[in-house]
Amino acid sequence: MAAVTRAIDADLVDRACALAEGRRALLGIVGQPGAGKSTLASALLAAATERGIATALVGMDGFHIAHRALTELGLVEVKGAPETFDAAGYVALLRRLRAAEPLVWAPEFRREIEDAIQSAVPVARDVRLVITEGNYLLLDGAWRPVRELLDETWYVDVPEELRRERLAARHEFYGRTPEQAWERTLGSDERNARTVAATRPLADVLVPVG
Ligand SMILES: Nc1ncnc2c1ncn2[C@@H]1O[C@H](COP(=O)(O)OP(=O)(O)OP(=O)(O)O)[C@@H](O)[C@H]1O
Ligand SMILES: [Mg+2]
């Protein structure tokens, strides 16, 4: 799908840049499937970079367990659920980013192949603002250390119907029939959406998206 750079509220850019004032900051963007996390994160990356803040974007999606492994585990049908991610690997990466190691290579999820690739995103020591985004930043269990590793967490708040429509449209764009797209959106995605919605009160900031 064409990468669209959307306008981002200047107040949000101010807030993110202030977090990174004179230090490395980790900012989390969380929200339900299809809420617009990746879109907001890309817009923020562009805006902060334009303001001269060295910024990097590291997705939680890079820690999707490989499709082949999920097949062996019988988890393909619920791909995207919390148990289909390597949460501990994600936590370890955030710890390395927090420690500002000289160079950290992060993985990246590629929707075209429905799999992550390793060592795709470099984060050098001089990066001040690290943006990370994903569904489960505020979950308990294996995800619990994440929130303490982040300076702030923003929740992308979008009306449910709009979110589902955009999610189904994206599924279609990546090759599903309309029926399959809606089955996915109202099936496993919807279960995950409820899991994420339960964490909304834990966010530091709600970002309304229309
Ligand atoms: N403000 C917006 N206006 C119109 N379309 C939008 C907006 N934000 C996102 N979209 C579209 O909605 C769809 C979902 O957005 P996006 O991929 O950013 O969501 P996400 O939260 O990252 O989803 P996922 O959890 O599946 O990774 C995309 O097709 C995107 O282009
Ligand atoms: Mg996304």
Automatic annotation (TrEMBL):
InterPro entries: P-loop_NTPase (IPR027417)
Keyword Kinase among record annotations: yes
SUPFAM superfamilies the record matches: P-loop containing nucleoside triphosphate hydrolases
Keywords on record: Kinase, Transferase
Gene Ontology molecular function: kinase activity
Superkingdom to which the source organism belongs: Bacteria
Protein name per UniProt: Nucleoside/nucleotide kinase family protein
Species of origin: Pseudonocardia eucalypti
